[in-house]
Amino acid sequence: VDFSVARGEIFGLLGPNGGGKTTLFKIVSTLLVPAGGAVRVFGADVATSPAAVRRRMGVVFQKPALDTRLTVEENLRHQGHLYGLRGAALVDRIVEVLSRVGLTDRHADLVGTLSGGLQRRVEVAKALLHRPELLVLDEPSTGLDPSARRDIWQDLSELRRGEGTTVVLTTHLMDEAAACDRVAILDAGRLVALDAPDALTAAIGGDVVLVKTRDAAGLAARVTARFGVDAEVLEGQVRIERDRAHEFVTDLVESFPGEVDAVTFGKPTLEDVFVHFTGKRLD
């Protein structure tokens, strides 16, 4: 795995569970020493200078790291103390970050009474207290309903625009990855693709055709022989990448009468990109 992240961009690590993205998250956030190679954040090596990295980084974990028995403000006070913030400076910064994530009116609420989406926003506020230049998040939308997911993404976008913060996040959600400036696709610990979402889908070219049939393996072989295209079996369907799919589908059905039960086609998505490079869907 070899990549760099530009200042001020939202960078996504997309992959399945076990694909390596959480391990990479732990290495970048200094929780795990890399077995080989080197990871540098703002020029500092995460293995030899973890304290220097942590001072400039905020981290939001997949599992909540909040004390549900305390209020929102009390959680932030404890976090601020860990970074040496005290007195009026801490109070002012708490007011600032709560405003940033839309929780000003919830400062006195017990964290345990908040929804999962609001708790995640408290996590983001915690991570921002010491004004990090880099914010790293592990599966920030996990367990959230669509409305809460939109709120978190609005927070991240405004944070990037307002403070120029660089954001790196892991995800297995295609729509979340599509909202990033660039996406690195990981599978089995390997980097299989890296680019802007639009560039990744454009690289496939043409359309993606899915054919439902009773004999997927047999039809795939016959389609390849007849049309000279790569036809693969994916979850019991025949998958084909082809330009001008609307014309191809007509030829396909006419060439194999009675074998095509149903067919769909459309422009490639990030999921199609993942299938293209790995030969499987992202679970």
Structure description:
The chain has 283 residues and is α/β, with parallel strands linked by helices. The protein has 2 domains: 10-197, Rossmann fold, CATH 3.40.50.300; 206-267, UreE, C-terminal domain (Alpha-Beta Plaits, 2-Layer Sandwich), CATH 3.30.70. The chain has helices at residues 21-28, 50-55, 72-82, 87-100, 116-128, 146-163, 174-178, 197-204, 216-227, 245-255, 270-278; strands at 10-14, 40-41, 44-45, 57-60, 134-138, 166-171, 182-187, 190-195, 207-212, 231-234, 237-242, 262-266. The strands form 3 sheets. The chain has a 6-stranded mixed beta sheet with strand order 4-5-6-1-7-8, with helices on both faces. A 4-stranded antiparallel beta sheet has the order 10-11-9-12. Helix 3 runs parallel beside helix 5 (116-128), helix 4 crosses helix 5 and helix 5 runs parallel beside helix 6 (146-163). The protein starts with 9 loop residues before the first strand and ends in a 5-residue tail after the last helix.
Short description:
The chain has 283 residues and is of the alpha/beta class. The protein has helices at residues 21-28, 50-55, 72-82, 87-100, 116-128, 146-163, 174-178, 197-204, 216-227, 245-255, 270-278; strands at 10-14, 40-41, 44-45, 57-60, 134-138, 166-171, 182-187, 190-195, 207-212, 231-234, 237-242, 262-266. The chain has 2 domains: 10-197, P-loop containing nucleotide triphosphate hydrolases (Rossmann fold, 3-Layer(aba) Sandwich); 206-267, 2-Layer Sandwich (Alpha-Beta Plaits).
